[in-house]
Amino acid sequence: MHSVLVLDFGSQYTQLIARRIREIGIYSEIVPYNTPIDEIRQHNPGALILSGGPNSVYGEEALHPDERIFDLGVPVLGICYGLQVIATHFGGEVAVSPKQEFGRAQLLVNRQDGSAESMLFRDIPDSDVWMSHGDKVVKMPEGFRVTASSANSEMCAIEASGSRAALKVYGLQFHPEVQHSLYGKQLLSNFLIDIAGLTPDWSPKSFIEHQLEEIRSTAGDATVICGISGGVDSTVAAVLVSRAIGKNLHCVFVDNGLLRKNEAQKVMDVLRPLGLRITLVDAEETFLRRLKSVASPENKRKIIGRTFIHIFEEQIHEEKFLVQGTLYPDVIESVSVKGPSQTIKSHHNVGGLPKRMKLKLIEPLRELFKDEVRAVGRELGIDEDILMRHPFPGPGLAVRVLGSLTRERLDILRNADEIFLEELKKHGLYQQVWQAFSVLLPVQSVGVMGDKRTYENVLALRAVESSDGMTADWAHLPHDFLSLVSNRIINEVRGINRVAYDISSKPPATIEWE
Ligand SMILES: Nc1ncnc2c1ncn2[C@@H]1O[C@H](COP(=O)(O)OP(=O)(O)OP(=O)(O)O)[C@@H](O)[C@H]1O
Ligand SMILES: O=c1[nH]c(=O)c2[nH+]cn([C@@H]3O[C@H](COP(=O)(O)O)[C@@H](O)[C@H]3O)c2[nH]1
Ligand SMILES: NC(=O)CC[C@H](N)C(=O)O
Ligand SMILES: [Mg+2]
Questions:
Q1: How does it associate, per the subunit comment (predicted)?
Q2: What is the CATH number of domain 401-501?
Q3: Active-site residue, selected from the candidate residues 101, 159, 177, 319
Q4: Is the CB of 445 inside a 6 Å radius of any atom of ligand 3?
């Protein structure tokens, strides 16, 4: 199976490029812009895409790919910064533009220059595209032609032609991957299917078949341990691995004392029908002891990540591999392994892992987004109730009791959160939001209850809409509903006298508070 490699120059839209390609039915992966040519060859790519990026190709901090990518014999499409890389590589010039373009622009496809229409623009009329650039091509590279223009960039789309046509190198100043570029997906499809000749055969089913082979060849006859949480990702990962290696899979569910109310029991009940071999480990003591008096979010996350691995290691008998349900957003936000993107927070299962580990990782979902994992789960026949659960982070309530943890504060949060989730379900709102939870703030406020002054904790409710957790908007829950939840929590949960609703989107906030 050929994949498309996206070389990441740090664009905010890099993941969107990969997504759009998969929506077309072609598998794609993102690698850092400077991945060496030998590594690129190992992926056996059917096409390369160079992403946009914040730098300028003529600046001191310009990022350059391995130049030999242009000799691989596979078609290359550069987007924005990627176009500018192509233009300079082939002898053209890029300079700062007197007029910048951000947002909507009108694309004029060049059909009048006597040459044949570009295959890239087949079935694409003059239409709206989305721009985000301050530089532009000012001198064409030799052996290239202009195939489209916009008001502020005359050389808005270029491609190798004439004696260089066989190179199949294309560049676009606009971003075809964003929804506002009306024919963007059609354009990507023209590039991948018509020009690169790829077959759109990526589907949950083909993904599963491919992964089953990969897992079998990695694991061989070895036994494998899998951290399972009752969440969507680890359940799908465990079912997939158990399909591949059967009884050699041993699942461990860690009760880290940071779970929701009665969660451990509920999860064991839900997972039982899947027929997996699961050990429940009670590690509350260990986690809470190690987290005692730790207030910094990053420290909490790292301690939790390490403790998970220690607990897994205690459970190992002859296992050599650890399966995790790590997803793409966990990876991209934790470490900048995939190019020049920034570390936002250390997800416990990626940035929180200890430096030395006895176990080797198997992470079959590492390149997928949540909605794709759900589609894979559906194909595997996993129950909708499990697949549609809200995500729950591995560090659990530790990142929702802000500041230092105590068992008492965890319990206050558990009781409040239970009411919130119960009411969401009762009102048919649970499935309408992507994730919902409560956060116990390290703040006390004054209240009056039964004529008495109170000085108690403040709780924040958070509910968001999202498709992959990368961006999110706060959910506009009905006011009557919020009022009912607030009332119940203040009346029923000892220790809370005020409830607030979080109305921040991601970005600039994140979904969790820590
Ligand atoms: N309590 C736990 N016991 C064992 N492993 C866990 C636990 N919590 C998290 N993990 C491991 O960490 C991985 C990442 O957690 P994460 O919350 O992202 O995924 P998930 O729990 O499987 O799914 P979801 O995002 O839907 O909650 C899990 O896939 C699992 O391998
Ligand atoms: O397994 C996990 N381990 C973590 O360390 C972690 N941190 C955040 N999350 C979940 O990821 C999504 C995005 O969260 P943020 O906007 O807070 O980064 C949201 O769904 C969060 O709940 C985590 N999941
Ligand atoms: N979005 C981009 O790739 C921007 C590229 C380059 N920095 C410019 O401003 O033109
Ligand atoms: Mg989880």
A1: Homodimer.
A2: 3.30.300.10
A3: 177
A4: no
Q: How far is the CA of 241 from the centre of ligand 4 (A)?
A: 18
Specify whether the CB–CB gap between 235 and 373 falls below 8 A: no
Distance 416 CA to ligand 4 centre (A): 19
pLDDT band at 66 (very low <50, low <70, confident <90, very high): very high
Q: According to the model, what pLDDT value does residue 506 have?
A: 84
Structure tokens at 476: 């506009």
Q: Per-residue pLDDT tens for 436-487?
A: 999 999 999 999 988 899 999 999 999 999 877 777 899 999 999 999 999 9
Distance 50 CA to ligand 4 centre (A): 33
* DSSP code, position 195: I
Residue 348 is a catalytic residue: no
Radius of gyration of the chain (CA): 26
Does the domain formed by 3-195 have CATH 3.40.50.880? yes
Tokens of residue 233, six digits:
């990702």
Q: Which is the closest atom of ligand 3 to the Cα of 51?
A: 3
Percent with pLDDT over 90 in the chain? 73
The topology (CATH level 3) of 204-387 is Rossmann fold (3.40.50)
pLDDT at 343 over 70: no
State the virtual CA torsion across 98, 102, 105, 109 in degrees, nearest 10: 70
The DSSP call for residue 271 is H
Q: How many CB atoms sit inside 10 A of residue 123's CB?
A: 10
Across 93-107, 137-151, 490-504, least confident range: 93-107
Q: Which of 2, 89, 133, 175 is catalytic?
A: 175
Confidence (pTM): 0.75
The pLDDT score that the predictor gives to residue 19 is: 85
Catalytic site residue 175? Answer: yes
Task: Tell me whether residue 177 is one of the annotated catalytic residues.
Answer: yes
What ranges do the domains of the chain cover? 3-195, 204-387, 401-501
Residue whose Cα lies nearest atom 23 of ligand 1: it is: 231
Closest ligand to Cα 135: 3
